[in-house]
Amino acid sequence: MSLLVGLTGGMGSGKTFSASIFKELGAHILDADLICRKLVEPGQPALKEISDCFGENILDGSGNLDRKKLARIIFNDPDKKKTLENILHPKVFAFEKEQYRNICQKDPQAMVIVDAALLIESGNYKNMDKVVVVNTDEKTQIERVVARGEWSRNEVVSRIKNQMPGKEKTRFADFILENSSDETRLRNQVKNLYQKLSLLAAENG
Asked: What was the pLDDT predicted at 152?
């Protein structure tokens, strides 16, 4: 009676906010980014593989992965980006599968949301029962990310252009959350979708 749902969307789409609402409503959340961080902690096999491929200077003075340095490298080199994905994605998928199994043992009626920016690009969407895409227009995306103050407008535009467009992501979606207006509207959409997914989870049983 459980249901595994993939949740994805581009930068500034509202994916993370949507995941937080699903969690409030009772869903279990598996955050792919947090899983990646866990898998590259000192002592983890993935970190050694990354340092072997990218050199030990990819680590900081404490032996931790220098994520910003790695991000700069893969952003400008598609081959190295693919190398990193080949190291991490299988490990992330295996970790998610194990966590899903553990959750379902404790809660056979669980709705588990996999919050993953690269759900589609990585092919992991094929492992989901349902796929949800949070979509917004590019102008709104840019304004939201720029407002965070982490990158300049040019950097934000470049990063968004380097991602799969939202409209293309929606081709893989079973459900679409449109988020080009305000949080209240998105919250209502998530609540309605949660009810639909809950019914699907019950039907799975």
From this structure: 84
